[in-house]
Write a structure and sequence with these properties.
GO terms for molecular function: DNA binding; sigma factor activity. The protein has 10 helices and no strands. It has 199 residues and is mostly helical. It has 2 domains: 102 residues, Rna Polymerase Sigma Factor, Chain: A (Orthogonal Bundle); 68 residues, Arc Repressor Mutant, subunit A (Orthogonal Bundle), CATH 1.10.10. Helix 3 crosses helix 5 and helix 8 crosses helix 10.
Length: 199
């Protein structure tokens, strides 16, 4: 960027402008107008982002991202639709919420990976079934279920997950998981005790 206020007359005129007018100038590529805009909005942006993220380091990082976005997208600001500060804070809130969602998604992915890595192999799951049932029959009966039925049953009964946790883990609606698990258990029961699989 050019040094701020290189032209004394322009600097004097700019000093009389409000934030909305300065933002319009920034939208036209006026780098010097960005200096007072940055000064005016950086504090409120950091305050809002900190309230959403709570983490000081992440808050500072997101604040810088927001200010870069303000510089890049200032041309989209429309004074007739609201104040410049409101527009900037809307950008900041959106960025902060995106960061929270991204962090939550990453944590959830890591939890899933950890759960899958610690899940016992299929043969170990089978060995946990009541001793009166033949392992080969249990394996055959579990294989006769649909993939969603089998995963739901294994997660619920061998890993102790609730219906809701199973639904979240498999990214399926709760009602779908409940229905598939009920159908899967009925098929298992029929297969194990009658040697037949329900059509």
């Amino acid at each position: 960027m050019s040094p701020p206020d290189a032209d004394p007359d322009a600097a004097e005129q700019r000093a009389k402008l409000g934030l909305d007018e300065l933002m319009v100038l920034v939208g036209r590529g006026d780098q010097d107008a960005f200096v007072p805009v940055y000064t005016a909005v950086s504090g409120p942006v950091l305050g809002l982002v900190r309230r959403v993220l709570r983490d000081p380091a992440q808050s500072e990082e997101v604040t810088q991202d927001v200010l870069v976005e303000v510089w890049r997208t200032a041309g989209r600001f429309r004074p007739e639709q609201g104040s410049a500060l409101t527009w900037v804070l809307t950008l900041a809130h959106r960025r902060a919420v995106d960061r929270v969602r991204s962090s939550q998604a990453r944590t959830e992915r890591e939890r899933r990976v950890a759960l899958l890595e610690t899940a016992p192999p299929f043969d170990d799951v089978v060995e946990q079934v009541e001793t009166g049932l033949e392992q080969q029959q249990v394996r055959r009966c579990l294989q006769s279920l649909t993939e969603l039925q089998r995963e739901s049953v294994v997660l619920a009964y061998y890993h102790g997950l609730t219906y809701r946790e199973v639904a979240e883990f498999l990214s399926q609606p709760l009602g779908t998981v409940k229905a598939r698990m009920r159908d899967g258990l009925m098929r298992l029961r029929d297969c194990l005790y009658e040697g037949e699989v329900r059509p």
